[in-house]
Amino acid sequence: MSDPKLFYKYISDKTKIKSANQRLNVDGEIIEEEREIVQVLNNKFKEVFMEVTDQLEEQERQGEYWADKLESIDFDREEIVKRLQSLDVNKALGC
């Protein structure tokens, strides 16, 4: 782009947060208040996280936690440099 103003306008348009009316359906109840939506999502996150944490703690108490622990990692500098240099900078992450 030869026009810097056009470039910055494009970037500005792409980085704006567009606020829309959000709704969340929880067990047939429609929630529209942002605070309530955040609270419901937070509670769900905590519920799932705590469930996994509780399971891991129980496994540790019973001595059933990861049998194959990773004890050490060996890095070969040359191999890392070689792989980094072979990365396609035009390729999207995760592809």
What's the structural blueprint in terms of helices and strands?
Elements: H1 4-15, E1 24-26, E2 29-31, H2 34-61, H3 77-85
Antiparallel strand pairs: 1-2
Provide structural commentary:
With 95 residues, the chain is mainly alpha-helical. The chain has one domain (4-86). Helix content is 52%, strand content 6%. The chain contains 3 helices and 2 strands, in the order H-E-E-H-H. A two-stranded antiparallel ribbon has the order 1-2. The longest helix is centred in the middle third of the chain and has 28 residues, at 34-61. The relative contact order is 0.05.
In short:
This protein has three helices and two strands; from the N terminus they run αββαα.
For the report, how would you describe the main beta sheet?
2 strands, antiparallel
Instruction: Please state roughly what percent of the residues sit in beta strands, choosing from under 5%, 5-15%, 15-25%, 25-35%, 35-45% or over 45%.
Output: 5-15%
- Helix residue percentage: 40-55%
| Terminal Cα span | 28 Å
Q: How is the largest sheet built, in terms of strand order?
A: 1-2
Radius of gyration: 24 Å
Mean pLDDT: 81
Low-confidence stretches: none
Order of helices and strands: HEEHH
How many structural domains in the coordinates? 1
Which secondary-structure class do the elements indicate?
mainly alpha
Q: Helical region count? A: 3
Q: Count the strands?
A: 2
* Overall morphology: flat
